[in-house]
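Protocol step 4 of 6: record predicted structures for both targets in the notebook before any analysis. Target 1:
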Amino acid sequence: MSNKKSLKHLRSKDELFVTNVSEYFKKNPGPDKRSIIQRTIQATGVSRRTIYRLWKERSKRAPYKPVDGFDESVIRNKIHEFYTYSRQLPTLKNLLTVLKTEIGFPGSRWLLRKTLRKMGFVWKRTTDNRKVLIEKPSIVRQRLAFYAKKKELEDKGYCLVYMDETWIDTAFTAKRCWQRDDLPGVIPPCNRGQRLLVVHAESRNGFIKGAQLVYKASSSSGDYHHEMNGQNFTKWLKEKLLPNLHSPSAIVMENASYHSMQAEKFPTSSSRKQEIKEWLRKQNIAFDDGLLKPQLLDLCRLHKLEPSYSVDQIIRRHGHEVLRLPPYHPDFNAIELIWSQLKILVRHRNFTFSYVNQHNKSNETVAISEQEEMDTHCQALETCDDVTRFVDVNLESVKEFNTDEKKDTMRIVDGNKA
């Protein structure tokens, strides 16, 4: 049987390869007297007829017309119009249709993709405005305060304990696997199943033994944070976490609503007038009993105290401290780095899709995590903190330098004008 390939068995990249080989032999004849066809046949293994067909198709193709600067400007403006005026996603298909109509774009989607990449466009996952929010002056101030308090607690000998919550569905399994027609591999159910919530805490020495809580959520969709409330969190804190902390610890937590329940509620516009008066009397603030409600609220705002959280009071009564993360900084929580690894382990071990088995798998995967991994994550987080703090401090210096330089330039300009 001949080992020569026919054209119908060649893919587009194979056709391009054969064409490029023949073009190379045209430019480099070589010392022997063999023809270009013979050398191409010997090098690629395709038939003579296939090579002639490829040459014929190549001769029929329209010559390549490069995209000039004017066309690139039009493409850039059209993409901007898709976002601002049409309010549509500029996919290759939509963009190519418009460009062929308006500027007679000569190429295919492949050429358009190549042109967009050359212009600096990248098709990637969309991002939110978190990068903007974390650079707000108020957030930077809270971030610097976090660094300072963290260092102060570490100098006093407190052990950092990171706590957080995550979720796992009973149908949480691998999305890809080795399979064929007679061996389908993993067959996940059509729905997500029941959702499990996992609450835990970890330190440099590993997960806190006895602090794990796994329970079934009432809903399997939406944000899992609404499944946890202040009562459940306080119960977990008193019964699971605090009894298992045997040395002075600083508990690192985010600013979720159930973490930030105020011990004494500050009066608001929805408070009754009598409640506002009681709060003022409790704070030993003198007021005229004939004042109206808006005037009483203004008086409360003048004497507003720093918020005191009931969770913080419970933790401090047990000899520990609280270290709250700055807003929009979940990456400062070391336990976030371990959740993804735990979910990968669950994916690779979940084949039954039942609540009981998934509950057991969650407990097993937590037990698999070793102390070395925890220590590695804590070290990586400390390095990230040091780098971020260095950037914050030096960025402030650069801003001050630029401001002073701008002022000096303005003085020089004003002097020249005079």
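Target 2:
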Amino acid sequence: MTSLILRCLLLVAVVAISSGNGVRYTANWTSIDSRPLPVWYDESKIGIFVHWGVFSVPGYGQFSEWFWQSWRDAHRADEVEFMKKNYPVGFTYADFAHDFKAQFFEPDDWAEIFEASGAKKGLHFGLYHSLYDWFHPLYLKDKASGYKTQEFVFQKALPELVNLVMTYKPELIWSDGDWEAPDTYWNSTEFLAWLYNDSPVKDFVVVNDRWGNGCYCKHGGYYNCADRFTPGSLPNHKWEKCQSIDYHSWGYRRNMKLIELMDLPTIITDMVYVVALGGNYLLNIGPMEDGMISPLFEERLRGMGAWLGVNGEAIYSSKPWRVQGENTTVPVWYTSKNNTVYAILLEWPSKLLFDLAAPKTSADTNVTILDDPSVPLKWVSTTPTGLVVLMPDIMPVSPGRGWVLKLEGVV
């Protein structure tokens, strides 16, 4: 009876009620995929991903956010041995919650760090939601049935999603944990039809592509595809790369080493590549259980923000250019905005005369460097395309190891 009542309540939640905007989406992928992506997402380019929870207390493992599964389900040797050495027999994962005190958590401090990182998308509120649940008895029951039953979906997953939307009104939903079951089990298209038609965030919410086995890189809003997705050429659909500063884990690891973290030039190189190929860059940190963000993570975020403070014009609201990159002398990636092209150099040229092969100059061409935009740089055109730029005598200081030439009046 409870299951039937919840099914009825959910049906009420997803029944279409005219929203007055003239566009209605039905519960199928053809319709759901036709929804235009809200403009704010593409313009923002940079976001911050945060993995913080009870798993931050042990802060250990190949992927610390998977500690419970690794210890109790996969029985990975490292996690099992860690528990034997450090905790008494009978200690459960739920017992970690007693030490998840967040005694130093200051949301204003987090917000200031995220703003300083240059992550304009970070100022749009998003929520992560895992569809499946490792140990939930209803999920395990549905799984044992070959996903022919949906008790977990109707009693936990979908009511939880609807509650998250109604309570917190997120501007972005980052769905995950979808891969074990098809989207028809999760009732994903029904939820998304309600989200796009009748929810309080229908006009501006953005979602990713993890809504069931076989969906990613195929259905949904923007595409995450796999973690750390890095296409080799320009995709034909808006996409995102989620990347953790810690190469190994998304959650905090107490035993992480400096060599296992991305340095600032690596972050800038990765971000520039993603944006040049039309993607958004979602950079992850894992706070500590007490609510502090590691100074190492904070330093990387502030360094990224400082670089964007000088060069963000080439990143925010930009579009891929007709040529995404070249490597004639140093690695160069291109972005564009209106009638301006930005050449992003990831190494400083060894000679003052620097060749760019792709741009076609005109009588209106003007070249500046964003480190000193008030001073035009001298240049001459080459045939059949390209130009040679006289670079500044002194290399501008750039801890991120990236410099941007602004090319106006080129095609």
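Step 5 preliminary note on target 2. Residues 319-408 form a domain with the Immunoglobulin-like fold (CATH 2.60.40.1180). Residues 1-20 have pLDDT under 50 and may be disordered.
Proceed to step 6 after PI sign-off.
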